[in-house]
Write a structure and sequence with these properties.
single chain, alpha/beta, 5-stranded mixed sheet, two-stranded antiparallel ribbon, 9 helices
Length: about 350
């Protein structure tokens, strides 16, 4: 078969596995085995092409820590604050260049203009950025006033000296100086990062939380109530109690009769006027007294018996079930269960 037309290979990258497959397909196609070899070769080239590699992450921002605006502040406070700012910038992943690292390599004639230039002017910022070869220039504010320090941070772009953002805090005491500088850096660095590198990538969507599991509260089983014990005598306890009360009433009547007989014998009988049938009256009084005692005794016994019958503990009902069955030639009756 004829030689295929030459085409310019696309600028794609081929994996090592495809490089091992393609020479074999080309050898087979040169031997004229089949036109399907060319189709397989094109398919291998198509499948072996790799997707463009992911873009590498942007490099970290480079920033120059310029001489601060520290009017009236002691030198030891300025040096300590500059060191704190540099450490905070490094901790946030920035490439930090301090002005001291640059000026110590310069001659006095070149060092003086960098240290004494007006750090609010764009020309001064461009000079500092060119000397440090950084993208940003940070100027720390450390002005000492009557009400305390005026702290803050201003960030400029090094190529044109334009102000990106600033954050100032007035009336700061010396013991709160480092905290206020950290607060200012937290305010200005995200703005500068967005201005030069764009907004940060959006976080991946959070997975929805699992559905709540319904918790069924187990209710304790109600304790099985024991059957109330039978008290067969309780319902008849009123009989001896009523009888005892009646006998107590009868005994009271006889007691009053005996008292009356005694009063008649004591008051009405005198030696001058003796009572008629005094012996019969005394015998009647003794009989009434005896009957009252007997009635009181029987009445008390009846009341005690009624109370005992009412309070006497009973027994649990017998769980007995009767059963009956018919069998050839007769029947059968029985009981099953627990007898008391």
């Amino acid at each position: 078969m004829g030689r295929p037309p030459t085409t310019r290979a696309p600028p794609w990258r081929v994996s090592p596995e495809a490089r091992a497959v393609i020479p074999d397909l080309a050898r087979r196609s040169g031997q004229g085995e089949s036109v399907w070899v060319w189709i397989s070769l094109l398919a291998a080239l198509t499948l072996a092409t790799q997707a463009p590699a992911a873009a590498p992450p942007p490099p970290p921002l480079s920033i120059l820590v310029a001489p601060p605006d520290a009017a009236g502040a002691p030198s030891h406070v300025v040096e300590f604050a500059q060191e704190h700012v540099a450490e905070q910038l490094r901790a946030r992943g920035l490439v930090v260049v301090r002005i001291e690292d640059i000026t110590r390599k310069l001659s006095a004639s070149k060092r003086r203009p960098l240290l004494r230039c007006n750090r609010t002017a764009a020309s001064c910022i461009r000079s500092l950025g060119a000397a440090g070869k950084t993208e940003l220039v940070l100027v720390t504010e450390l002005g000492q006033l009557l009400s305390g320090y005026r702290t803050g941070a201003r960030i400029y772009t090094a190529d044109d000296g334009a102000l990106v953002t600033e954050h100032l805090i007035p009336g700061v005491s010396e013991d709160q100086l480092l905290d206020s500088l950290t607060q200012s850096l937290d305010a200005v660095l995200p703005v500068a990062q967005t201005a030069l590198r764009g907004p940060p990538p959006a976080p991946p969507p959070a997975e929805p939380p699992p559905p709540p599991v319904a918790v069924v509260e187990a209710k304790p089983l109600a304790p099985e109530l024991e059957p109330e014990p039978l008290r067969p005598l309780r319902r008849w306890a009123w009989l001896p109690a009523a009888g005892g009360a009646a006998l107590a009433g009868v005994g009271t009547v006889f007691y009053l009769q005996a008292g009356d007989r005694y009063s008649r014998l004591d008051k009405d009988g005198t030696p001058d006027a003796p009572l008629d049938d005094a012996d019969g009256l005394a015998s009647s009084g003794r009989r009434a007294q005896t009957l009252s005692r007997v009635a009181f005794g029987l009445g008390a016994a009846g009341l005690v018996a009624g109370a005992v019958m009412f309070l006497l503990p009973g027994e649990l009902p017998a769980k007995v079930q009767p059963s009956a069955a018919v069998v050839p030639g007769g029947g059968m009756v029985g009981l099953s269960g627990t007898l008391p």
